Fold:
Amino acid sequence: MPLRLVFDLETKRLANQVGGWSNIEKMGFAAGVTYNIDSGEFSRYTEDQVEGLISSINSADLIVGFNLIRFDFAVLKPYGLQLDQALLHKSVDLLDVIHSTLGFRLGLANLARATLGETKSADGVESVRWYEEGEIEKVLDYCEQDVRVTYQLWRYGINNGHVYYLDRRGNKIRVRINWRGDSSPLSD
Structure:
């Protein structure tokens, strides 16, 4: 049976603590969560378990994430993740598809609110603060919620052929989507 995972991670530091977004690899891995699409099971990882996470990613036949390639994989490179063509080929980065379709980036919170009526429970700043305070369970809970929302958004796009976002005026805009590419905006 193929292994299909949805994945997200949280970092120890913010971009402004490591000299900006060009230094993502210096942000450090705090915690990560995977969701096995076929078994319905979540797995949680802390820094001392990062090898197990990387092994799961390498073993997966499909990896779904949001800002997966530019961010999550970059954070894991110092821990031994090889960002190669095989990994990229089996990865579906929802943000990359949205950016390629619209020409601009949107946050997961925006897409989740517009498409699913969901809100995020926190943000990366709070997650780093929790990590610094030693509250790793809060970090893992937040990460798991993001994985759950990412999975729901991915499924919605597959099942409906589109997702929604809120523009700057708060208008709900529909975007035709194919998470493997070939997406285009829809006009209502």
Notes: The radius of gyration is 16 Å. Confidence is low (pLDDT under 50) at residues 181-188.
